[in-house]
Design goal:
This protein has about 525 residues and is an alpha+beta fold. It has 20 helices and 17 strands.
């Protein structure tokens, strides 16, 4: 059914967030699906800012929304410009706060044709009516008190400057539409009564503003969350009242937490900028979000944005709720970290090392750090604890040996901090492997010190170190290398888990490696 509906050239779709807070995963998922649909069928993806709530709408949140969409790679074809005032596209302005004159003519049309009316009921009256309907077991709705006010009564109320809203005169009939995901949906409009559609003659509320904007911007498909299904029959009635064609509708499934309750922070659902700061990559989030309601019917989990465009269709979107599983997002992120070019990965990781005060760029800049995601402007850094110079290439080597282990970029400082410290602190019990006694550990460390001292500087590399130390480990305890290698690794890192000791020793260098093994021996003697 749905595939037949999609035979359309150049669809025009939109994402219309309200700038009342940062961009969250639900809105980002909706933006992604709209973007994929537009690109899959050679259409246009529009960003529209729904900022009619002037008290709650903030420019900072608008900027956040635009920056995070760009970070995800979801570039809009029409909409506001991020870098400067103005917009791209022929159907602007793309901020609702700048479209009041456009709204005015439509609201006046509804009033002139008797399809909308002024309502002067007080908040107290409306509250009492809501409570009455609830008390008799009916959904709360407006009872139509102001529906048939005479022209004279309306004028008198306006002259007296009585507060008012504008209501839609509901025809009270069945509304039927075919959702491209859920199929046929039927609603009796008498259930919601005469809805408020505007605060005044040029300030529409959501349902009317969306209808006017979608028509004016020639939107062909409205793809949004399932929570908007109750709004769709109201909007269809408004299209009919204005004599406008209605777009096709597709409502994406809800996103629930792992316990199938409403998605919240406790499930890991936070603002996109928080994921970004934590060290999630945009390609991981894109891949993860694509599976929140879409099923390609293939035994495949890895999709780039390009491959998603090629494969995407609304026909493959599911009706049942999507489950948010942060562990799966972390898995995706680890995968994409492993695919990263090491130079690029190092660039991405550097802000975390700087934020943790492990290194300081020699060249200072206002734009770098702690701005995450900025390009590195320095190739030379200073280790804060020791004052030593460390070059980009050496930092790159450190990150390279942890690339396979890294799941989110923010983990890096804790994993590698021992490279940037003069002294490392750890309990001596950590040096123990299985049932080894202190004298056995001390013997292993003394042997390791002797072996390392005998290695020539030109041979100091991970492969040679591995060959020499593994051979010694086999002689030290046949059948279990851990008795020899475990205390070496702990002595070098101070950690229970780390990259192989041979690679760590190579980067630390001969002098530092031997110093740390000596300090481990001293710790055992305490």
């Amino acid at each position: 059914m749905a595939e037949l509906e999609l035979k359309i050239e150049k669809p025009r779709v939109r994402i219309a967030p309200s700038p009342t807070g940062p961009l969250h995963i639900g809105t980002a998922r909706t933006a992604l699906f709209n973007y994929l649909f537009a690109k899959r069928y050679g259409g246009v993806f529009i960003l529209r800012i729904e900022d009619t709530d002037l008290e709650r709408s903030k420019k900072e949140w608008e900027k956040d929304i635009m920056e995070e969409l760009k970070w995800l790679g979801l570039e809009w074809d029409e909409g506001p410009l991020l870098e400067k005032e103005g917009y791209i596209g022929d159907f602007g302005p793309y901020r609702q706060s700048e479209r009041r004159e456009i709204y005015k003519k439509y609201i006046q049309k509804l009033l002139d044709e008797g399809r909308a009316y002024y309502c002067f009921c007080t908040p107290e009256e409306l509250k009492a009516k809501r409570q009455y309907f609830m008390s008799i077991g009916q959904p709360p709705r407006y009872n139509g008190k102001c529906r048939n006010l005479t022209k004279k009564e309306i004028e008198e109320c306006l002259v007296q400057k009585k507060p008012y809203v504008i209501r839609f005169k509901n025809p009270n009939k069945k509304v039927v539409f075919v959702d491209l995901i859920h199929g046929k949906i039927e609603t009796d409009s008498s259930e919601f009564g005469d809805i408020v559609i505007a605060k005044d003659e040029q300030t529409p509320l959501y349902n009317l503003a969306a209808v006017i904007d979608d028509f004016e911007m020639k939107i062909t498909h409205v793809i949004r969350g399932e929570d908007h299904i109750p709004n769709t029959p109201k909007q269809i009635l408004l299209y009919e009242a204005l004599g406008l064609p209605s777009p096709k509708f597709a409502h994406l499934p809800l996103i629930l937490g792992s316990d199938r309750s409403k998605l919240s922070k406790r499930h890991g659902a936070v603002a996109l900028k928080e994921y970004k700061k934590e060290g999630f990559l945009p390609e991981a989030l894109i891949n993860f979000m694509a599976f929140l309601g879409w099923n390609p019917d293939q035994d495949r989990e890895i999709y780039s944005l390009r491959s998603l465009i090629k494969e995407f269709s609304l026909e493959k979107c599911q009706k049942s709720p999507a489950i948010f599983n942060k562990k799966k997002l972390v898995w995706y992120n680890g995968f994409y970290i492993r695919q990263k070019n090491i130079d690029k990965l190092t660039q991405l990781c550097l802000p975390y090392l700087i934020e943790a005060e492990l290194v300081v760029p020699q060249i200072e800049s206002k734009k770098y750090p702690p701005v995450f995601g900025a390009d590195t402007i320095s190739q030379i850094f200073v280790i804060k604890d020791t004052g030593e110079i460390i070059e980009f290439d050496k930092i790159k080597k450190i990150i390279a040996i942890y690339q396979e282990r890294l799941k989110v970029l923010s983990e890096l400082p804790e994993l590698v901090d021992f490279f940037f410290k003069r002294e490392i602190v750890y309990p001596k019990e950590l040096l123990k492997w299985k049932d080894a006694e202190d004298k056995d550990i001390l013997s292993a460390l003394r042997k390791a010190e002797k072996v390392l001292k005998e290695i020539e500087e030109e041979n100091w590399g991970a492969e040679f170190l591995k060959k020499v130390l593994v051979e010694e480990a086999e002689r030290f305890k046949v059948g279990d290398r851990g008795y020899f290698l475990w205390p070496i690794r702990v002595a070098l890192t101070g950690k229970e888990a780390s990259a192989p000791p041979f690679k760590i020793a190579e980067i630390l260098g001969k002098e530092k490696a031997i110093i740390r093994i000596k300090r481990a021996q001293e710790l055992l003697k305490l």
